[in-house]
Amino acid sequence: MAQRIYKSTATMASLTCLLLCANTVNAQSDEERLKQLEQQVANLQSQVSSNKTGQDRLRFNGFLSLAYGVASNDGGYAGYTEEGTLNNDSLFGLQGAFTLTDDTEVTMQLVGRGREDWDPAIEWAYISHQFTPSFKMRAGKMRLPLFMYSDSLEVGYAQPWIRPPVEVYGAVPVTSYTGVDGLYDISLNNSTLSLQGFLGESDETIALPGGQVTRLAVNDLVGGSATWTDFIWTLRANVAQAEITTGGDKLDTTFMGVGFSYNDGTWQVISEFTSLEIDGPTADTESGYITLARTFGAFSPYATIAMTESTDDSERPLSRQAAFAALTTPGSPFFGNTDVLSGSEVANLERKAYSLGVRWDVMSNVAVKFDVTRASDFGSTGGGLDGNFAPAIAYDDADVYSIKIDSAF
Amino acid sequence: MKHLLLSLLLITPMALADFVVITHPSGPDAMEKDQVRDLYIGRSKQLPNGQSADPIDLESGDALREEFHSGVTGRSQAQLNAFWSKQVFTGKGQPPRTLGSTAAVKAAVASTPGAVGYVTPADVDGSVKVVFTP
Q: What is the ipTM of this complex?
């Protein structure tokens, strides 16, 4: 018993040792005393390091973005109108990560958005387990990993832009899912290949173009991504498919994306191309962007060209006038049913967007960004602007001027 | 005037204070720049000799920290912060722990197997092993 206590706590051992050393000092050689002192130091060190682990068990991080934007007209591009608003892109996030064991962690992230009255919603809530140094699995609510910046979608501080290009990132209204994923990292000579596979589902209320909201269920979601990086270059490709339900129809949907980025510390190039195919007359889209940025000390100006277009316009022969007539005429089979719009030429889409902006790193962990974006080249379509979901196209283009403060802490 | 020139000559090499990368005496004999970089961006968690790595950074605002990162990770402090915010909020990792001085870094490295740090060449003594010199 005495032996057990003796071994059980390092402090006791050290103290006992000190007493022993003092009492029997004459009987011991210098060498033995040195050994005991070394043991004491090692004991104290192990205590210090175990205390450190205790403090690291729970970690909190947060981010905050405050944005003001105003548009040249009321078309509603990127959520902005002539009136100007602070709420559209402003948000805060709080993340807690609790370490259960060396290999198991629970992560939760709350995000409150200005456009949702700042009501905090759970964006991430998952448990992860590192099975081997290169294989990890997660289960819970996670970001839908369709884009290069999906994971840090709302962490403005981690991004060069004022907002991810709307043409690409706005193409899919669902940004998270509930399910499981597996992440496998392969270390190559001086680079890493990360493979990710995921499956799950989602069911949430989304905003439709034109200001309507609807319930969108995503079932049988399965997908994967491959990302190769040597820290300077990153190449990524991903696919996903699912069965989506809005209203009554179940529609098979396929998503594909490729992207690359280059960052040598001075120059930065980011580009992504994505394709979304949905069964039936719901619009299929192809979208892409390229961003070039250069860092001059605390200033990183950038330029982006982005595009998006629908690729199946021939599946929607119904004209704009006819669709709105069917929607608004009492007695018509589509009276009051906005589905008729998404199956007509109103859903045709063509748009380019040109952005010039600058990220200014004012101080550690705070960046201020300015951006001017012009959306134009709508062809014969409404360009996807909310204000053009009307019997006649009212807006041929839109300019949005924004300023944003991004912080992470 | 002569004195001014002389003191400028003396100051300049100090302003460009070099760094060396150190490990615990049980660490590897030498490391490549990319191996050091991978530890400090969280991509590698092991030293070349298989020890579990414990990289230690200086606190932000330290001139030697800026020099180390511009030489090894090739990122400014702002870019490094942006990089880590991306890693942290996507659950991919945490930045290395930080200490307030090269003396504290040396002491921690000297007493922790697997620890890696960077200090000025003048800080180095027999308690640590130099594994990389730029």
A: 0.81
